[in-house]
Amino acid sequence: MDLESFSTKWFALYYSVLAISLIGTGGYFILKKDQIANYLINKADHKKPPTLFIRILKYLFLFTLPGLVLSFTPFSWIELLFTIWSLFVVYIAGLQLVRWEQSRTLIKANQQLPGIIKRSGAIMVAVGSAIFLLAYLVITRHPMS
């Protein structure tokens, strides 16, 4: 298998899994917003950020790095921009965990947390749908053998 074929398969699989994860998690956020708000408020009582968030960011980062390299074989602006966007999302989310003292204070003080969680879930579903379109684009542009 050549590197170009591997790159196509990697992005098709990565986009599909990420899209399914975002749509599923976003739907869960929409349906269970009060439970998630209670979870966040409960975790805001701890000094350290939740390990679940750290793990999610770690795995997103680890799966994004190969995409950065593979976006150059063959060179694709779409994959490169998506990978840079993914790294930017990891960076912004990581900043929130680094500033956990301020974040947890804001979580405790926010009375509209369930509404924000529901809106975030809707955004996740929309982004997941767009990522499915990227997977379709990769598959139709480079048919896998």
Written account of the structure:
This protein is mainly alpha-helical. About 85% of the residues lie in helices and about 0% in strands. It has helices spanning about 5-30, 35-45, 50-70, 75-100, 100-110, 115-140. α1 (about 5-30) runs antiparallel to α6 and α4 packs across α5. The protein starts with a helix and ends with a helix. The mean pLDDT is about 90.
How would the blueprint of this fold be written?
Layout: H1 3-31, H2 33-43, H3 51-70, H4 77-98, H5 100-109, H6 113-141
Major β-sheet profile:
none
How many strands appear in the DSSP assignment? 0
**Shape call:** elongated
What string gives the helices and strands in order? HHHHHH
Quickly give the structural class: mainly alpha
Q: Which range does the strand content fall in? A: under 5%
Mean pLDDT: 92
The parts where pLDDT drops under 50 for at least 5 residues are: none
- The helix tally amounts to 6
End-to-end C-alpha gap: 10 Å
* Rg, Cα atoms, Å: 17 Å
* Helical coverage, percent range: over 70%
Which descriptors apply to this entry?
mainly alpha, 6 helices, 145 residues, elongated
